[in-house]
Amino acid sequence: MQYTKDDGADNRSAQDTTVMNKAGRKDKKPSWVMFGITTALYLAFLYWVGSWWGLIVLPLIYDLYISRKINWGWWREPEVGPVTRFVMSWVDAIVFALVAIYFLNQFFFQNFVIPSSSLEKTLLTGDYLLVSKLSYGPRIPQTPLYMPLTQHTLPIFNCKSYLDHPHWDYRRVEGLGHVQLNDIVVFNYPAGDSLCSAPQYQAQDFYRLAYGLGEGSYASKQPSGLLPNIGDMQPQQRHDFFAMLYNEGRKIINANPSEYGEVISRPADRRENYVKRCVGLPGQVLQIKNHIIYTDGKANKEPDNVQYCYSVKLRGQLPMELIDELGISQEDIISLNQQGFLPLTNASVKALRARKDLVESVTFVNDPTTWDIYPLNGNKGWTRDNYGPVWIPKKGAPISLSMDNIAIYERPIRVYEGNDLQVKGGKIYINGKPANKYTFKMDYYWMMGDNRHNSLDSRYWGFVPEDHIVGKPIFIWWSHDPDHSGFSGIRWSRLFRFVDDIK
Q1: Nearest to 451 by CA among 276, 226, 246
Q2: What are the residues whose beta carbons fall under 8 Å from the beta carbon of 310, sequence distance 6 or more?
Q3: Which residue of 83, 110, 198, 455 has the lowest C-beta tally within 10 Å?
Q4: Does the residue 228 lie in any domain?
Q5: Which residues pair with 433 in a beta bridge?
Q6: Assigned domain for 261 exists
Q7: Phi/psi of residue 309, each to 5°?
Q8: Predicted confidence (pLDDT) per residue in 187-217, tens digit
Q9: Looking at residue 5, what is its pLDDT?
């Protein structure tokens, strides 16, 4: 019996070994197949992005599917304690999710929420958009090491969510197309290269703040309390005067860290995301005349839902049903109660003027303000409704530089394209050499909101360089009216609507 038992055991051992060997051989086949598919897809991706540095990952892929020298699932072993197994299972899932999100957000798609009314009534506050990176081609990350699902700041900890190094030069992968006229585009805020670290000032335009503080300081020192007449100055005097105002504003900010915090900078791809409509393309001449946009002398068709500011005088209170029917937000009502202004579409203007029982008058507001209009250091006398003409820089295209236009193109040349630009003795110097011409290295765009009188856009901070372009909104996957809570705030009719279909 002993002998028979031993013999049977030996036989079973041999059989088990055979089975295991066969199982092992069977396991190899799908492993090689998966390795081949994964490698092919990964190589295609590297070819698409034009970088072969990723080949260093291939040994890890080979080990994962074939050699298995690294025990990637060590925490699943029977001898590992239940607490460790539980913790590591969550770590594994979180790491996988973060890597997947990083990959998808960087190269394919990203979520974006409309935070303000600058594009109403085309896109509404509370619209959640799926933004395609493929439409214009994804950017190779300039700051590749960052926490997924954050733009620049870690919540709770209130610290940077990215590392400054390594930092890569701008490069864009070939996409499905290019930015077209009237496209709605998500991009990084161009004037966000510098900002005050104090929370109450982070959302403000740093340059408008600096110039404003400088102007206030200068005026307070004058007997009249006023600024000099800019029109009476020579070009060099005008340039030096604005430089003085800016430097004075910077001194005030630097001298008051308790109020403004520190002056910090962010790389292009870590700046705030904005969404506007592209109304001017590279190489075009843009002009706004009586609030109508012209490109190359041709009037641009306005969106059906474009809004302008109107002075509204009421005979009585607007009923809630009319407010909801016209899409008037609580933000608009506050503006009406405080200043008597409402942003309105053409259809809303007609509807209000028809209500003679409630409305006394609805009058278009033509704001002649010039002080906050781009270029801030030029004071061209332009307004939000009468602007330009201005030529939009195009990659490879030269422009003649003069004291008359240097204020317009100084920021793109110096800040966006990294040149040392000086203006001395009525002459322009680029990288230490006299220059009367400059050839641009990137394409630039002119962006404006559809809520034309309530939009912080290119009229205030200038051109949008191509390295700031993020992507194109495809459809609205969720929409909730912030003025209504719960289910009553869900805008059911907007769910899964394609942005291009919203006129």
Answers
A1: 276
A2: 341, 342, 343, 344, 349, 362, 363, 364, 365
A3: 83
A4: yes
A5: 430
A6: yes
A7: -85, 135
A8: 999 999 999 999 999 888 999 999 999 999 9
A9: 40
Nearest CA-CA partner of 175 in 143, 148, 138: 138
Cβ atoms within 10 Å, residue 415:
16
**β-strand partners of 358:** none
The string over 262-290, giving b where at least 16 C-beta atoms fall within 10 Å of a residue's C-beta and e elsewhere, is: eeeebbbbbbbbbbbbbbbbbbbebbbee
DSSP calls for 275-326:
EEEEEE-TT-EEEEETTEEEETTEEPPPPTT-BEEEEEEESSPPPHHHHHHH
Q: Looking at the 3D structure of the chain, how many domains does it have?
A: 1
Domain that holds residue 208: 190-271
What is the dihedral sign for C-alpha 54, 57, 61, 62? positive
Distance CA 471, CA 110 (A): 9
Torsion region of 426: left, alpha or beta (phi above 0 gives left; psi -120 to 50 gives alpha) = left
Contacts of 177 (CB under 8 A, 6+ apart): 135, 136
Give the chain's count of helices (H) and strands (E): 11, 24
- Locate 89 and state its tokens: 């299972």
Cα–Cα–Cα angle for 126, 444, 241, rounded to 5 degrees = 100
Beta bridge partners of 362: 312
Query: Which is it for strands 298-299 and 308-314: parallel, antiparallel or unpaired?
Result: unpaired
Q: In whole angstroms, what separates CA 379 from the centre of its chain?
A: 27
The residue type of 66 is: I
Bridge partners, residue 172, by sequence: 139
* pTM exceeding 0.85: yes
Angstrom CA distances, 182 to 65, 208, 257, 499, 500, stand at: 48, 27, 42, 12, 10
Tokens encoding 143: 């700051």
* CA distance linking residue 128 with residue 246, whole number of Å: 38
Instruction: Write down the pLDDT at residue 368.
Output: 77
Distance, CA of 364 to chain centre: 31
Beta strands in 165-255 (DSSP E): 184-188, 194-196
Which of 500, 499, 501, 503 has the alpha carbon at shortest distance from 128? 499
Specify if 259 maps to a domain: yes
Under-50 pLDDT residues of the chain:
1-28
- Cα–Cα nearest to 181, from 297, 308, 282: 282
The rounded distance, in Å, linking the Cα atoms of 492 and 503 is 18
DSSP string, 40-108: HHHHHHHHHHT--GGGGGHHHHHIIIII--S-TTGGGSTTS-HHHHHHHHHHHHHHHHHHHHHHHHHHT
User: Which of these, 130, 114, 497, lies nearest to 276 by C-alpha position?
Assistant: 114
In a domain, 240, yes or no: yes
Q: What are the backbone angles phi and psi of residue 302, rounded to the nearest 5°?
A: -80, 145
